[in-house]
Write a structure and sequence with these properties.
Blueprint lengths: L3 H6 L2 H11 L1 H11 L3 H18 L9 H18 L8 H13 L2 H11 L3 H11 L4 H8 L3 H18 L3
Helix pairs in contact: 3-4, 3-5, 3-8, 4-5, 5-9, 8-10, 9-10
């Protein structure tokens, strides 16, 4: 387990790189939930890593490092999502997106499409749940009570069933 003292004792850059490599799955899942195209997912991944690096020195060890990373990732995804952007789709982008869809199972992609139809806060709760964070940890990340997490997850599951026509 990584502690605040071990963070200070080790080389910050190497420790940061190790943490990102060990926990890149968290970042990839956030990107997949918040972005449609592969290119946008890659851009968001880079932005999240950048924001993690900027905040790395401020990590105080009050939560697990994965919880902290998740919180930074979701906040970055939401903040970045609100920025106005010009959408340009090229033939190359379309081909790359289709290749991505072919590499994922159809059901997985259908689930991600349904999740993207949820509002931002519901997506944040659900993606934290997919990361196997406890209700308490999800509550810490999102600033809500443990009980609210359970209630919201139940409602989100009902919404997803309706979207997926299950």
């Amino acid at each position: 387990m990584i502690t605040v003292s071990s963070i200070r004792a080790m080389n910050d850059k190497q420790l940061f790189l190790d943490l990102v490599l060990q926990n890149q799955g968290i970042i990839y899942k956030i990107c997949k939930v918040y972005r449609h195209s592969h290119e946008d997912q890659e851009d968001l991944f880079q932005e999240i890593v950048y924001q993690l690096w900027k905040s790395f020195g401020q990590f105080q060890g009050r939560s697990k490092i994965t919880t902290w990373m998740y919180r930074i990732g979701v906040n970055t995804a939401i903040a970045d999502f609100r920025k106005p952007s010009i959408k340009q789709t090229t033939l190359e982008d379309s081909i790359q997106f289709e290749a991505t869809l072919e590499s994922d199972s159809e059901k997985t992609e259908e689930l991600y499409k349904a999740i993207r139809k949820l509002n931002e806060s519901d997506r944040a709760v659900l993606s934290a749940y997919f990361e196997d964070l406890s209700y308490s940890e999800i509550g810490q990340v999102l600033g809500i009570s443990e009980n609210s997490v359970g209630i919201r997850l139940t409602r989100i599951k009902k919404k997803l069933k309706a979207i997926l026509n299950l």
